[in-house]
Amino acid sequence: MPTSSCTKESHVKLKKLATMIAVIGTAAPAVAQQAQTDKPIQRVEITGSSIKRIATEGALPVQTITMDQLDKQGVTNAEQLMRLISANGTGADNMTSGNNVFGADADRVSGGGSFASLRGLGPTGTLVLINGRRISGYGLSGKAVDLNTIPLAAVARIEVLKDGASAIYGTDAVGGVINFILKTNYEGVQANATGNWTEHGGGATRRLQVVAGHGNLDTDRFNVMVAVGYDRNNELDSHQRSFANGYQPARGLSPDTTGTPVANQLTGAGTALGSNFQMPGDPNKYLQAGLLSLQGKCDSVQGMNQYATALWKDVTSPLRSTYSCAYDYGGDYVMQLPTERTNGVARATFQVNPDHRVFAEAIAAHTNSLAILTPAQISTSLANGNAYPVGGPYYQDLSPYIASFDKTKPIIYKWRAWPLGNRTQNYTTDTVRLMTGAEGVLAGKWDYKIDLSHSESHTKTDLVDGYAYTSALYQVLGSGVVNPFAAPSQGQSAAAMQALEGTKFYGRLQHGKTTLTQFNASISGEIWQLPAGPLQGAIGTDLRREGYGFAQDVDATKILLAPGNANQDTVNRNVKAIYTELVVPVMKNLELQLALRRDDYSLIGATTNPKIAFSYRPTSWLMLRGSANKGFLAPSFAQLYSGRLDQELPNGVSDPVGCASHPGDPRYCAIERLNYFSGGNPNLRPETSKQGTLGFIVEPNANFSMSVDYWAINVKDRILNRTPQVVLANAAALGEYIHRNADGTIDYVDAGWINAAGLKTRGADVGLRGRGNLPDGWRWNATLDGTWTQSYQFAEFEGQPYVEYVGNFYTRDIYLRWKHNATFSVNKGAWSFLLSNLYRDGYKDQVPNGGKGTPPAGFNPHVASYTTWGLSTTYTGLKNTTVTVGIQNLFDRDPPFTAHNVDEVVGAGWDPRVADPRGRSLSFDVKYRFF
User: Fold this and answer.
1) Residue 10 domain-assigned (yes or no)
2) Which superkingdom is the protein from (predicted)?
């Protein structure tokens, strides 16, 4: 990596320190900056090592991001930050995508949270740290850290380790580590106001921050710092963006739901439409009908359109919806959730003497977000008593269009219950971490750290609109007072609204809590002098007690479409770990890092994970580096101990193994009341990994550097969520989850979380840095951080072939071939200008409608690439003031079109995992330093 211009004497000193090159390096030119101040070169602990080293490029790839970079690119929260990290997965771990279900194997941690997913291995495969220490996971799931809890107001920089680090940090570090480094020894008071407003309306973001510090550790022997931040994101709705449109039949996209705001009538024995109906001169039999469809007026109601039968041919029911209207609920989603965050840090440090300091620190965050879904879809039936009654004031007679219509019979229908309101869930998360500790130097050469911390995260879910008690609602619908055939523009009667209001549920639905108590102690330093330099080592211990509990505050089964999970009593587990690390100068310019860690879980067992890394400089302008290590990912509390639900499969289920050997026997071929369990699995094994990197850094001069690091990860025993149908269909591979009686019949099936097969992923990270002079005193600086994914393969079960997913649509993550974030800046005096570029490669699109219909001639099977540009200018010429004005998405690029429907990925016609729906926006950032 480039360094700032140094004196000749400084270069000589650095050359003598070649064997002291950091095992982990940063992109910041820290060495040069320190040399310019004539202060001694500081040794610092950098993410990925327990040994304090000189901050420069080392054996492992670490990307450093400063808050100044984020401000100039209009980034206002940690979720937006993750878009700038090319190594982060293109997945569903953001607040928009997390508002929907992503496949049966999705280990969902969303619901008001935002998460990291390095290498696309999922949030639980990425370790998030604050100042190198853990913080409790998201309260509702007990898994990954919610990025919304990170106090950006006090963050100095973010270090992203793009390599496995279980040998240093333990579990969760399979995909890598994101370490938020807080400010220390801060003096003065600074206020920061940031705003970002979209050109097309909606989705505005605002942030206020204040940082205050007093005392200098070098002169006053103490420092006290307080930082507080407040963020607010406004709602952005799909109808505010034309590209969020699920009805584009010419491109193969059309909604499949007939649960419309103006109800469609259903067929059924004993109902007005009977078991089916025919149209004059047409021998076909149909199963649904809507008055607006029969009149050709579906599009007279916003969000509705004529059902595109040609795109949705169903082999089992080809004529189901020919005379029905469809509802584009993909165009009726909330693309940016309304969110408020308040977080802060208070830290006090006392310098006991030049060699020892003690500190106390408190971090707290409060997040409030609304997950807003479309109104509930209801299919009525005679059995449920909610059919529209004969003689009701809004009885819809279709006999002028359908001769067989019997108006002496009740009507059953499918309806989007708009008078109930949008289903709205309020997520409130409170997180706190308290820490005290000491650090310093023993005997003049041994660096030590010791700290004790406790953190908790509480998340509560309240239903604030759109939910009703099922039985009470059905009774009101069956009375006929509600008009399901009225458009929203027509409204409902006062009596209907009063009756519906009486059925609604408001209040606490569920709550969860995670706890983490941790004691850390480590010591490091030079052990003895070798011919090539000093042998350095570290040894430490990590003792943790983790806990998680979850409870439903009401019986969710009695509330229509309310999200429900089984209660989980509070479970605790103890983790005892010891780790050691060596930095060995083998020969001049060749250095090894050796690390070993053993973790012992009270409820899982013990695991030992080694790591070896090297850095070698054959010349002054070239460094070779690489690593090899093992990792592990412990099952989460929810995966292990979430309440097991005892359920039954519908009658007629077949046992593929038993039926083959006992054909025609109903005990095997048409099973009645087959029991299965879903939920946690206390017998889960940890996921394990083998991984490594191999790369080089070329730095021909101080103004240019290039790094390329090839990485490979193999994971075994992946923990996936599987349905009983999937288990039965793959009985040969998943036989251990099918429990049989003595006679060979199935007793029950274990579904839910299981250890499935593995995955293999390969790729390379590329980093470019350049700088130089321009005429008239201007200087330029350019950067590029990119990730090329060569392969991402996994098998659904052990023994099945691996399938390649790079460049192909998938319901959890999209594994793009290439992603990058690039910047080019120029500066002179008080002025600086930054041009930024974000690029996401294209991929093969999903087959429209699951292949049930014939794609139209205009269908393009490839989703286009997505690229946006940003431009900002910063002025520091005002006393104590820095002003940045920027435009994000400079050319107002819409997300590329994709033909998937919202049932699999939220956002029909576009994909929130790849693109930002906000469009062109204007940002302001003003900093004022009072003193």
Assistant:
1) no
2) Bacteria
